[in-house]
Amino acid sequence: MGERMKLTKRLILANAATVIVPLLITALVALVYIYFIANFFGTEISYTSYQKLSEIRLELTGSQSRLLNNPEIIKQETFHAYLREQMANLNGEVIILKDDHLLFSSRNFSKIEIAKALEIADRSAPQPFSKEYLKVGNVQYNVEQITVPFPDATEGKILLLAPYDRAGQNFLNLLLLLSFTFLLSFLLTNIVISYQFSRRIVQPLQYLQKAAAEISKGNLDLAIAEEGDQEIQELCRALELMRLKLKESILTQLKYEDNRKMLVSSISHDLKTPVTTIKGYIEGILDGVANTPEKTDKYLKTVYHKARQVDQMIDDLLLYAKLDLKQLPFDFAPTDVAKYLEEFCAECEPELEQAGIKLTCVSQLSKKQILNLDRERMRRVFTNLLDNSRKYMDKPMKEIKITLRETPQSIVLEFRDNGAGISKEDLPHIFDRFYRSDQSRSEVKGSGLGLAIAKQIVEGHGGKIWAVSHGAEGTSILISLKKR
What is the 8-class DSSP label of residue 164? Predict the structure, then answer.
């Protein structure tokens, strides 16, 4: 039977096998028995002989009913003649006794033969299939006894002697053998098929029960294998998917819990500095330290700047949380990527010039390329990358170059600066939330979420973002977006 057989089909085959297999075994035993009897004993199996033997028994049963109603009939010569005629048709004999006195005999039997017939009849009464026969001359007789009670408490006995027929007896033996064979093979076949059938169902169900118990204990690492018939395998597959979903849900929950703890810890650390500064300057104003209009104006501008910094940090935190929880929908629209980048550079160039940074945008595309972009979110990515580059500028001639090029499958944007570069130890972590290198953490201002937000938005577009360090010559941040 196939590994993925349907349970209903297996039930049909199992039920059919419980009948077909015993029939085949019984037929095989019948053929072997007939061959054995014919070749080793030289006899045959005859249904006619068995039918004749059945007629004898029916005749005896009918006679017994009449005798019980009228026991005196056994003394009448007409009954003797009738009984002799019936038994003569079967080549049988009859002996009638009353209190062991001979009333009638269809043949001259010796007292010894009559006594032996009585003995055989008494022993055969509880054993209807006894193999004991009465041998008279060259003839063997089956002995059947009919007991006739008389009103005077005496007992009459009629001994009916039917000639033993080997062919008929062989047929009777065959019927008994085949009946026993069919019942035994039917029982064994049912046991074997039931065992195999239950094993195909019970074992997978026991395994599922074990897996369910482990899941209830909180152990979600026990994989549920697909075993048994098709319906059982589908159940196993559904439970395995449930286990994986549940495990994923718990891992996600733990991840969000870790994120929450880290966000609280990191944002508390980053908010502490500007809030402390704000408190210090306000206390200075209240204590009269800012005793001139110029100092007061300076203190207020500093407080305002720090408040904006805190506000920006909170906005970044909320945006990152929404992106991380996939709660921020994207508004994609077909966009000419070269034109979009050109417009962005045109907007940012004046502000960067005031900061002493030269911005260069170069497109190496051979033709117009349209991408599905959320323009507002992608602008946030570009802005974050530029802000990150500005923070780490350490050269007199500060420069940022944006290059747009293509591969057979994607569009690549490279943001390269000539800043301080990134060490090999820090490079794998720069897109992690709140990550800064130890030496720059206290010097560089910001929420620490700029590159993490950029990564979330790029991945939301189905793209990739990564960094390449050029050592002291600067850093490149690359974005790869799939072509339409």
Answer: P
